[in-house]
Specification:
single chain; mainly beta; eight-stranded antiparallel β-sheet; 16 strands; 8% helix
Length: 255
């Protein structure tokens, strides 16, 4: 970003003192500024300098606004006020959720600091999907309804060992209905495991249906069922393939 100003040193001093920039190169009527996390460097040029085309010699950056996205915007405003920055528009909030204030440097260059009211935080991260392999350690089933016509209904307790991205054990209490061409099950599974290095427990409510060759599965992490390091876990889980649990999850604020 290249800006033409009357007093290069004044804008340089404002950006380095108040906004964390540092000088990387300088010459008569020119300075280049950067900071480690900047999306763009800032180059300041003195008005009239002949390194730009003649028709740009006397352009000014006074009508330019440079915007910075920040967090804890109240603290940023107080920091800049205490440092003597010229706050020309105090903090305000727009109806669409933008919170902002402006600082103007000695050349009329406007620095705008912005925080979005509904900006994503660490508690609302993008979902992660993993596929966890599991082995069935035991399968104990007891029929509880065997009619002459219609599906057989059974209670099953399944104990599993998970390995890989999800490391631990699971115990599923399952109810099934098995007919000649159609079947279904629902299950409540308590999992005690490590996920992303976080140890704790959670419960998945899942199930499936079969209609001939057509099959579908569904599953959800029971809201607020996470404990210990897994508090705040939410997501969806399916067993579309034998021996594979597909889990799509996020971590939110613990209940």
């Amino acid at each position: 970003m290249s800006l033409t100003v009357d007093d290069v040193a004044a804008s340089r001093d404002s950006l380095t003192a108040h906004f964390g920039y540092k000088e990387t190169d300088a010459a008569e009527g020119f300075v280049s500024l950067t900071r480690d996390d900047a999306a763009a460097d800032i180059v300041l040029l003195r008005r009239g300098i002949d390194v730009v085309p003649e028709n740009q010699h006397y352009q000014r950056a006074a009508d330019t606004i440079i915007a910075f996205t920040v967090t804890a915007i109240e603290a940023e405003q107080e920091r800049l006020r205490a440092a003597g920055a010229n706050i020309t528009m105090p903090l305000r909030e727009e109806p669409w959720g933008e919170r902002l204030f402006q600082v103007t440097d000695p050349n009329g260059l406007v620095l705008q600091l912005v925080e979005w009211r509904n900006a994503p935080t660490a508690d609302t991260t993008m979902p992660t999907t993993l596929q966890a392999e599991f082995e069935i350690d035991s399968w104990d089933e007891v029929p509880y309804h065997e009619p002459d016509e219609g599906p057989k209904q059974t209670r099953i307790v399944i104990r599993k060992t998970y390995r890989g991205a999800l490391e631990g054990t699971g115990v599923a209490e399952v109810l099934t209905a098995q007919g000649a061409t159609g079947a279904g099950y629902v299950a409540s599974e308590h999992i005690n495991a490590s996920l992303e290095g976080r140890q704790g427990t959670f419960v998945i409510q899942h199930g499936g249906l079969a209609n001939g060759d057509d099959q579908s599965t569904f599953g959800t992490v029971v809201p607020h069922s996470g404990t210990a390091d897994l508090a705040g876990l939410s997501g969806h889980a399916t067993e579309a393939r034998p021996g594979i649990l597909t889990l799509t999850y996020t971590f939110g604020k613990p209940s």
